[in-house]
Design goal:
417 residues; alpha+beta
Amino acid sequence: SMKNRQEEFDVVVIGAGAAGLMAAGRAAERGVRVAIIDKNKNLGRKLLITGNGRCNITQAEFNDKEFVKKLDKKGQWLFSALAAFGPKEAIDFFESRGLKTKVEPGGRVFPISDKAQEVLDVLLKYLREKKVKIFLGEEVLGFNLKNKKIVSVKLGDQEINARSFILCTGGKAYPVTGSTGDGYSWAGILGHKVVKLVPALVPVETKETWPKNLSGLSLKNVRLNLWQDSKKQDSRLGEMLFTHFGLSGPIVLDISKKIGELLPAGEIIIEIDLNPALDILQLDKRLQCDFMANRNKDLKNYLPDLVPQKMAETIIKFSKIDAHKKLNALSREERKKIATLLKSLKTGVRGLMGFDQAMVTGGGVDLKEIDSRTMRSKIIDNLFFAGEIIDLDGPTGGYNLQICWSTGYVAGTNAIS
């Protein structure tokens, strides 16, 4: 009977992703009995696919003010958690447990081994050492409440009682890993406001077919400009990727949130600058010099010196210049046309891809209803939140995992206080 199937803990963590594993380990480190519950049969499924299986652990930005700037206006909310457990503490946590790390361009911190499995192994060992009880393949069916407190969590054939509960169920991104947004409905049932959920860090579908024809091509050091109503709305510099539906890669993912905000107001144009280091006049001068030095070269044989072959073919197609024309035969207008295309290739935006392609979820449990110093709910006295379920997300480069480590650590620290 149900009465015979009750277990008693001090802290119960629901969700065994990055935030949940950190919260459970930290709470147990404080000497209390901890259980972690996950509906998956395996722990850390989403963690294993982050950073293409390499796991971008954190961002090597040790100035908290600079870190929160990257999280837009809501970033201020994270100050306390970063002060308690920021990127430096996250790196120390893993390094002190035998995981060597390296910093790559853009401040991205990875394991030297490039294996996400080793990051998960550190966290699982942390839980084992601290004697956290793990319930796998267990779906949470609801909560029992009494006097503004959760008394127990209901599973299939048992109830788990605890003094405190930490909700770390992740978001709706990558639903194949079990991130199906269950936590939002529970938060809502428990009286919390959930800010509208949107896919964040998500690829972009283009209107034109030319980007799709370049599928698989990756570009480094390019600038992406976002235009609406003839006004530049945003800009990013870095790496991008062409796909069978449009555009992806770090700078596209980072700018996707802005695209989502702007789309309801009308058409958006993405402009790709293939040579951001030079302005249009400097680039034209460079082309003049190159054309003089390579006067007998065909245009189609020269352009791959500047851009990848597939991109060179696209530029020639747009320019409507004969690919076999010699450089010394090109007119001033034709040269300027090439320069303009190198600085400004444009495509319209059809829309954003869905949650199944998104890296994280925008929106979540309203920050105003969570104490930023403790992660405690302001509505349910013994409920805490950590990770992606909270209405806070950042750009690519380790920011989102750091939000998980910081909020998970603080929730685990304060769950028994």
